Amino acid sequence: MIYNGYNIGPGADLTGADLTGANLTNADLTGANLTGVQSGGILGAPTLSTDYSVINGYIVGPGVNLANAQLAEQDLSNIDLTGADLSFADLTDADLTGVRSGSLSGMPSALPENYSVINGYIVGPGADLSGADLSGANLYFANLTDANLTGADLSLAYLAGADLTGVRSGSLSGMPIVLPENYSVINGYIVGPGIDNGAKLLSSYSTSPANVIDNLTIEFWKENTQVGGDLAITKGEVLVDNTTDFDQVRITQTDAFDASAAIDISDVLLTVKHIIGIAPITGIAKQAADINNDSDVDISDVLTMVKHIIGVSSIDHFDMVDSSGDRITQLASISSGDVPEYYLVMNGDVNMDGAFNEDYITTVDIA
Ligand SMILES: [Ca+2]
Ligand SMILES: [Ca+2]
Ligand SMILES: [Ca+2]
Fold it and tell me: Could you tell me the distance, in angstroms and rounded to a whole number, from the CA of residue 286 to the centre of ligand 2?
């Protein structure tokens, strides 16, 4: 197919081509060089390389020419616009969540609220700024809510007043010259209020990892003293602003977990069998059996269980454990990669037949 003097087909060199109004029905442009391609009014749905798509009649993707493009209210989420020409493009109310950019030329005539073009990047809520060179950038009062800054260069960037709620970071290079109040950069991570650098708490004993604790308030305790303040758990997520060392976790909602049902004589028997060597307990169950967390399962743990069962003194503390049964004793506000997933296990519930009240369990997608 020939259009406007250009050969249209897989691997075609369409550098700087003007394809405005082209009928590309059934066209295959896989692997074509679309750098500087100008379009608009494209008919049909051509096959394009993965980074490219046709949106509102425009070929959209890295390096394309979108000067004067009418893209108001269009879905540009997760589109890669690196190197594109956005001169006078109308992006009013376009969805720019996850948009990648950089080396942009020209300034759009309109952008959605809370977005701007800074240092050749589209900056705004949910923007994918991973690896972005934002050195020296003026991000004064920028809205970086849920943006991805992983691997970005923030050397001497000015972030006073910026909204960093939910921002993702890690492997940052360079130090900003100014950060918003209460934020800092530690080990390449932005640390501060509203940044999810804690853990996801799965409902203990659940076979489905998609069940998480919800709507609860937890406390961290170390050596019988509460450390830090109460922390709300929403859809499994606990956020920590500072590194928190602890040896136990407590829950403020007393109806959330029925400890009297969870710990009974069968838990005592399992523990006794472990102590006398008949049936060793391992993994998460062993953490539950070691009630005083002194790393030994022994008669003192049994006595604590018995006191709980006969009503002398009740057990009300949980261990935070990982899936291999290791007890977690620190939550740091800096973590790499995905948020870690941990279980809360009630001390004393060795056979793990206790359960959270279903009012405090919800289901989420865990990627
Ligand atoms: Ca324990
Ligand atoms: Ca013990
Ligand atoms: Ca039990």
Answer: 10
User: How many helices and strands, by DSSP H and E, does the chain display?
Assistant: 4, 19
**Residue 89 is encoded by which pair of tokens?**
């493009």
Q: For residue range 316-331, what is the model confidence (pLDDT) as tens digits?
A: 999 999 888 899 998 8
pLDDT per position as a tens digit, 182-220 = 888 876 778 777 776 567 787 755 555 568 888 899 999
| 283 in the same domain as 223 | yes
Measured from the alpha carbon of residue 295, the closest ligand is: 2
Say whether both 182 and 210 belong to one domain.
Answer: no
**288: Cβ–Cβ under 8 A, 6 or more apart, which residues?**
267, 319, 345, 346, 347, 348, 349, 350, 352
309 within domain boundaries: yes
What spacing in Å lies between the alpha carbon of 217 and ligand 3's midpoint? 23
Residue 184 pairs in a beta bridge with: 191
Residue 24: closest CA among 44, 4, 38: 44
